[in-house]
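re: the backbone from monday

yeah here it is again, tokenized this time
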């Protein structure tokens, strides 16, 4: 496949100037690394991407083009820091937004936001592809986050709605039709690999693996679990989470623990109801698994793969409805009656499997 790389901002060592090879000729941009050279580079790239010649020195200063892309991004990041919060802390989404807008600001930071169009967005996306470190799905999500920045601007009447309409015209990258790489999809962990890792790690990590496979808990749910969250009345223990991934969507998350899970949990529950049973970060849990895989010479998997393993096992033994009940795959508008049925289904699975 022919690559459509963006022209490179590079150093001309003889003169110390920045330059870019574009349309068959060198364009010298000024002192390498200077703000002036980067501005000139961004303008030339914009002209290359849109076919509209832009000369930042040609403006007469009489026309007000409104806020720049850089100013819009700063306004949105301020909003995002307030909006994407959970329990008083900024969520990972803010960091994802910062990552997404970085190439946007580098290439088109000084461009008027109302003049940013689909060709320019395509150029930003191409720069993500060219860096080689982002997978196709992540690039598509990053482009979606950039659109969200401009949606915020339209919502607050900072730019015309036509700008967002134009950006929505850019189709997503499709599998097999782009140079962007695809990561292998998460699947159930091979049984022999799982057993090898279980035998290689310490007891706590092994118990966490078993709980994840028995219950389908997300890694974040597992490491946040406390004794006080678990209702230990009845043959199936139940925990209703007040902090989980889909809380903002109005979804409930209920964990059900059968005899096997209860035997594991009993070894960690203490008199302190607020103490986390597994006081470590979810990344630490995943890193333990990946390190074990490397040491054993097998394909690496992370903690989240265990959730897929649980889903596969539960579906084979109890069907798709049981997977939805145990793993919390329920719609936001589910009625209280259906939520009750889901809990009863989860208890049935827990009695049998967990």
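seq for it, each position gets an aa:
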């Amino acid at each position: 496949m022919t690559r459509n790389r963006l022209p490179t901002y590079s150093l001309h060592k003889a003169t110390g100037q920045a330059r870019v090879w574009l349309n068959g000729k060198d364009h010298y941009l000024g002192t390498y690394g200077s703000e002036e050279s980067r501005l000139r580079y961004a303008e030339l790239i914009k002209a290359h991407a849109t076919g509209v010649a832009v000369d930042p020195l040609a403006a007469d200063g009489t026309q007000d083009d409104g806020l720049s892309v850089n100013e819009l991004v700063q306004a949105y990041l301020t909003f995002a820091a307030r909006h994407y919060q959970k329990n008083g802390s900024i969520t990972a989404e803010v960091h994802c937004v910062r990552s997404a807008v970085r190439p946007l600001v580098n290439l088109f930071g000084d461009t008027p936001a109302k003049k940013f169009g689909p060709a320019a967005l395509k150029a930003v996306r191409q720069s993500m592809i060219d860096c080689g470190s982002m997978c196709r799905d992540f690039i598509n999500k990053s482009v979606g986050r950039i659109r969200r920045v401009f949606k915020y601007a339209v919502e607050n009447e900072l730019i015309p709605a036509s700008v967002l309409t134009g950006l929505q015209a850019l189709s997503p990258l499709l599998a097999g039709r782009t140079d962007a790489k695809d990561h292998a999809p998460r699947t159930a962990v091979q049984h022999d690999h799982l057993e090898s890792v279980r035998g290689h790690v310490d007891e706590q990590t092994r118990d966490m693996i078993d709980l994840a496979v028995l219950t389908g808990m997300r890694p974040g749910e597992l490491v946040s679990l406390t004794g006080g969250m678990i209702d230990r009345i009845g043959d199936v223990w139940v925990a209703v989470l007040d902090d989980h991934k889909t809380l903002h969507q109005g979804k409930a998350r209920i964990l059900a623990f059968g005899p096997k899970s209860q035997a594991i949990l009993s070894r960690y529950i203490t008199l302190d109801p607020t103490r986390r049973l597994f006081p470590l970060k979810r990344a630490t849990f995943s890193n333990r698994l990946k390190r074990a895989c490397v040491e054993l010479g097998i394909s690496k998997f992370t903690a989240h793969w265990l959730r897929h393993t649980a889903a596969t096992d539960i579906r084979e033994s109890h069907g798709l409805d049981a997977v939805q009940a145990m793993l919390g795959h329920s719609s936001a508008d589910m009625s209280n009656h259906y939520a009750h049925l889901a809990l009863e289904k989860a208890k049935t699975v827990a009695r049998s499997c967990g």
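Confidence is low (pLDDT under 50) at residues 54-62, 244-250, 331-341. The beta strands are 10-12, 17-22, 25-31, 85-86, 89-90, 230-231, 237-240, 254-257.
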